[in-house]
Amino acid sequence: MLPPIKPLPMKDRVSLVFIQYGQIDVLDGAFVVIDQTGVRTHIPVGSVACIMLEPGTRVSHAAIRLASLVGTLLVWVGESGVRLYASGQPGGARADRLLYQAKLALDDDLRLKVVRKMYEVRFGERAPARRSVEQLRGIEGARVRETYKLLARQYKVDWQTRNYDRQQWDVADIPNRCLSAATACLYGITEAAVLAAGYAPAVGFIHTGKPLSFVYDIADLFKFETVVPLAFKVAAKTPMQPEREVRLGCRDLFRSERLLERIIPTIEEVLSAGEIKPPEAPPESVPPAIPVPGGIGEAGVRSQG
To answer: What is the signed CA dihedral for 285, 290, 294, 299, rounded to 10 degrees?
Structure first.
């Protein structure tokens, strides 16, 4: 008899791993990648927050089941992580957290409170008084554009604007390629944290109408103190493989900044600005798939009933 699985809490995991051109399977109970020559590479799936699957990757049913069981998010992305095609939920979102999030998003007054708190967390100052969500979004956009310009000057990068054609990615300028790779990494681990906490990626407050609206909301709270300066720093070196350099930099940065440890408490902080209590989980609610004594795991782990 094998001991029961005890998934690591999100804050203690490696942030992300990229896999390209390989068959992912479970062999002898281990999560492995098999390349074209048959070489096996073991991946400690239970200690990774997010696995990015690039073109040329195939995944077995057993591998997806194991990733779901241990709460690791699988994300299918385009080459170099430029485009997100689909993601596999690491654990079904808890209904009580979803109801709480939806109530905050649907009430205009509560939503504005949350947006104002997000503004405060992001910029370190109170949001201007008597501004609507749309007005705050406009102010935020202007500040973001100025921040790009400031960082470009700081790192001596030739910067025009945040613009590129995904259909002609190879001819995109290096700064935009670096920024896209960096934000893809950040969105991946943020989505993993959002799902681990039991919330819905699509129910956003500033961003709306997209599958990852809430992910963008939360990632933006960290973006300009983490991955954006890193992207400009890498772009300044004009590397031959900018996306790879950015990924390696993000991996080290996420570890040094303990980013996974910070994301879920920040989610709770901004939502609490709505000043309503989350609903209690109903007594008949389905428990987590892997009960972890002492509250070590996150809410939202999928039941395997």
So the answer is: -50
Tell me what percent of the chain is helix, strand and coil, each rounded to the nearest 5: 50, 15, 40
Q: Answer for the pair 27, 63: CB distance below 8 angstroms, yes or no.
A: no
Over 60: is that where the pLDDT of 144 sits? yes
Q: State both tokens at 240.
A: 């031959």
Burial of residue 2 (number of CB atoms within 10 Å: 0-12, 13-18, 19+):
exposed
pTM: 0.78
Report the C-alpha gap between 286 and 284 in whole angstroms: 6
Beta strands in 79-236 (DSSP E): 84-88
Q: Which two tokens stand for residue 301?
A: 């782990």
Domains recognised in the chain with CATH numbers = 10-88 (3.100.10.20), 95-272 (1.20.120.920)
Residue 74 three-state SS: strand
